[in-house]
Design goal:
Length: 341
């Protein structure tokens, strides 16, 4: 296969230690994971002249053999043509935010955030929870405020404070881990250990393109640029070896923590193409959307006692649970009481 059209790239110091598929995602973001796997299987992509796998770690100074421009372009075109279109969610105004309320009292409101609605504004975002909070003032003159956030495509329990003192108290509880947040996820494949604790430090990996978009988190050895991250998990049910219903409890609160940790186990969350690539694709009638839901929270209430709220699954996950024969109303906490970092 060697010939005059062969091209190579040398791994730079900034890329030392990352996976080979992440090197391609960083330097050739238009190349899909499936296309890369095919190029690796057929030997068009090699590491120091040897066949390699997508999960192999690269080291500074190593030489990556690249396919001819024509083959690389074909892979990029295939990724563009097969990319699943993002689901269209109806626009939401502030008045409809009230329909999402799960719990409300004098100082706290808890919403069931839908998948696809951002918690806060960002680049190109005009619709988000934070921009609609005026609709939840009710009898108070103060605007409610967020005390934590969820990823745009993650649904579920979102706590909002109605007073500054409540916001401070809730933030203090979250800071000192006097809270237990349990997420439900559907993974592609079943973890080898049915329950355990994932301890993998996470660091930010810069985004691609002129504006640095598509920033990702990557698992690294703990160090100056990586922060400690710990997630408890337990398999609640499974569908043969294809899918697992996993409960996850983040002990630390890093960006995309559960998504990265489950992907690192080799069982990415269904619909999480950011961290699972094509391995996150579902089957049959299961929707091509992120299957991650903030199921419940147990946190110290600012006025005393505990605030415990559970959120029903979003429609796409409810449909999946029905297809797989899982019980969406199951009331279970496989972890017991909250634990500290």
């Amino acid at each position: 296969m060697n010939g005059p059209k062969d091209r190579t790239a040398t791994v730079a110091a900034d890329d030392d230690g990352i996976r080979l598929d992440r090197w391609f995602r960083r330097h050739h973001p238009a190349l899909g994971h499936g296309a890369l796997e095919k190029l690796l299987r057929t030997g068009w992509v090699r590491l120091d002249g040897k066949r390699a796998k997508a999960g192999d770690r690269v080291a500074a100074g190593q030489v990556i053999r690249l396919p001819p421009p024509g083959l690389l372009a074909e892979g990029e075109k295939a990724q563009h043509e097969t990319a699943a279109p993002k689901p269209v969610r109806p626009a939401m105004d502030g008045s409809r935010l009230k329909d999402l309320i799960l719990y409300r009292d004098d100082v706290v409101i808890v919403l069931n955030k839908p998948s696809g609605l951002a918690t806060q504004g960002g680049s190109g975002l005009t619709e988000h929870i934070d921009g609609m909070l005026d609709a939840l003032m009710f009898e108070r003159k103060q605007r409610p405020r967020l005390v934590h956030r969820l990823d745009r495509d993650t649904s579920g329990v979102l706590v909002i404070a109605r007073t500054p003192s409540a916001a401070a108290a809730l933030a203090e509880s979250l800071r000192h881990r006097d809270a237990s947040k349990i997420y439900w996820a559907l993974t592609r494949g079943v973890p080898q250990k049915l329950r355990g604790t994932i301890r993998l430090a996470l660091a930010k990996e810069g985004g691609h393109g002129p504006h640095g978009r598509d920033e990702r988190m990557v698992a690294k050895d703990a160090g100056e640029d990586a922060k400690r991250a710990v997630t408890d998990y337990a398999v609640i049910d499974r569908a043969a070896a294809d899918f697992a219903w996993v409960a996850a409890r983040p002990v630390t609160g890093r960006t995309h923590q559960i998504r990265v940790h489950l992907a690192e186990l080799g069982t990415p969350i269904v619909g999480d193409f950011k961290y699972g690539g094509t391995d996150a694709r579902p089957r049959g009638e299961i929707e091509d959307r992120l299957h991650l839901h903030a199921r419940s929270i147990d946190i110290a209430h600012p006025s005393g006692g505990r605030l415990r709220v559970t959120a029903p699954l979003p429609p796409h996950m409810m449909h999946t649970w029905s297809l797989l024969g899982f019980d969406p109303d199951l009331q279970t906490n496989p972890f017991g009481a909250a634990r500290t970092r």
